[in-house]
Amino acid sequence: MGPFQGGMKDTRRASPPLTDPSPYDAAMYLTDRVLGRMNVARLEWAERAGWLANQYPFLAARMPIAPQENLIEELSAETDELGEFDAWKVYGNVKRKPNQVRSSRILGRFYADMVRRLRPMNVVEFGTAFGVSGMYFTAALRQLGAGRLWTFEPNVSWARLAEKNLAAVGGDFVLTVGTFEDNVDCIAGPVDLALIDAVHTSEWVESQFGLVVERCRPGAVVLVDDIDFSDDMRRCWKKLARDPRGRGSVAVAGHLGVIEIA
User: Fold this and answer.
1) Domain residues for 44?
2) Which of 13, 25, 128, 223 is deepest in the core (most CB within 10 A)?
3) Cβ 226 vs Cβ 236: under 8 Å
4) In a domain, 183, yes or no
């Protein structure tokens, strides 16, 4: 079970609202919902190359059931029943229920599948939220028998609930109460797999992408969540998907960007 660490800093900013989706985006949203019920994730390639292209050769991929998936979903449901929690104070008087900020089951399965295929020793995640995505990572790492999750969450109340959830699933993890930027040097060893899921603006995501890529080994994979969050994030994903530091890039279920590092 990972220790809590200090150094929390108010760095999150509100993201711009998403404009009305195009007919294509609306159709793809409905398609992804239908495919998700079939345990299938749509793949939209930006750069079909490298290890990613070999692992996921088609335009869709069936997601196998994740290790301890039932337990993870039970813990998620129990956490959501606790009601609303204050968001980080930079947002003002805003509350969120855990299910409003969690990763979906289909993406949780993708995270576990990525661990199974990549066999990472160091997985980095920011932010933790209430621990759903982290539970999928740690459950898969535990089944693998190796590897550690390094996860960062500056919201103290959220982090404490996440810590309980992660501990219930087991596996090796370190949860830092603070930002990734302020605590990046605590990560031991090169990064094999990373999830950027903190502030959904291009300014923050591009900066965090640069920081994590500096610590990635060649062939590592960086995941960028909520690439459909706003027009700004859509543009950000298009830019990152063509970044010369990457080798292959694909969007999963229209929501998660995946980049293999060259």
Assistant:
1) 23-261
2) 128
3) no
4) yes
